[in-house]
Amino acid sequence: MAQPLSDNVRLVLGPPILGAALNWFLYGILMMQYFTYLNHANRDKTRLRAVVHFLFLLDTAQTFLVMVDIFSWYVHNFGNYEALFQFSVSPVDGPLLDSIIMVTVQLVYCWRLWVLGGWKILPAVAATLALVSCISGMFIGLIDQIEGHQPPHASPVEVLWLFASAITDILIACSMGYLRPRCLKVLKYRREIVTRTTMVMVKRVLILMLETNALTAALAIALVTVEFLVVSLHGTRLYIVFGYTIGKMYSNSFMVLLNQRTSYNTHSEVNEKLSTLNFKNRGNGRGLSCQNQRAGLRNLVPMAQQPGASGRDTLQGSPIDSIPHAGQHG
């Protein structure tokens, strides 16, 4: 005898399929960004390259585990409505892997706050919240995997996981918004090494940092909201859509920031040629070398190793050694 279906069956059957489709879609974008990064990663620090490879490995594992869930629910248990509320391996590819991906990206952002702003307390607070979020998410994933079925309501630890992550992203986004005018102010004091083009580039980088953190914070808050909505709509699986995509959003946002340097390098090479022609035509020393135009941005995006004396400078970063911390200027 066929099992009776609930009134909200569409909210049970639909979200896993939609979440899996979005997960694969975002994985395709991430793969494109990953190979784009590999083409320009030779100058980056080993630790940064390791972070990128680690994130891509986790996202790849998560994507294939999502398909294990889909086959378990819709193929191996076809026609078994109650099996849809069993977790399969979704606690692993959901809270467990999501929390590790999220904390990895957030710790890199905290490091950026420490470097750009010269702060210690704020990055430490943000990093602590990120670690609390990670531990909570891993705990939820392990407990749900052991229990094996969907609980009737969101647990306090689950709420802590998502709210701590959202607060971390909000702190980082607000800090980037605070640092943006101060970084530009620092560059204005150093007019001998920057140009208007560099100022525009720095502004774009900081705005991109702010926007990506605001986006991930909004997703975390949306997931918390959906978790509470499930309480009023008992027996739905709306949360899976966000659970399957939030980790990919963090990884893609992080890779966007890294790959933006490629377009900046191309733009700077054009400026180098124009500046050389300008210097030759005017002959009065007003043409600026590309190295000086890029110095400000390299110091604000310290992501790569310092090239040797014979190496060619790019916008892929160098330590902050000539521009003071933006957080130290009023």
Automatic annotation (TrEMBL):
Region (Disordered), start-end ranges: 308-330
Keyword Mitochondrion attributed: no
Keywords on record: Membrane, Transmembrane, Transmembrane helix
Residues in DUF6534 domain copies: 165-262
Keyword Transmembrane listed: yes
Membrane spanning stretches: 20-38, 50-75, 95-114, 121-143, 159-179, 205-226, 238-258
Domain of life, source organism: Eukaryota
Designated name of the protein: DUF6534 domain-containing protein
Organism: Leucocoprinus leucothites
Top-level taxonomy: Eukaryota, Fungi, Dikarya, Basidiomycota, Agaricomycotina
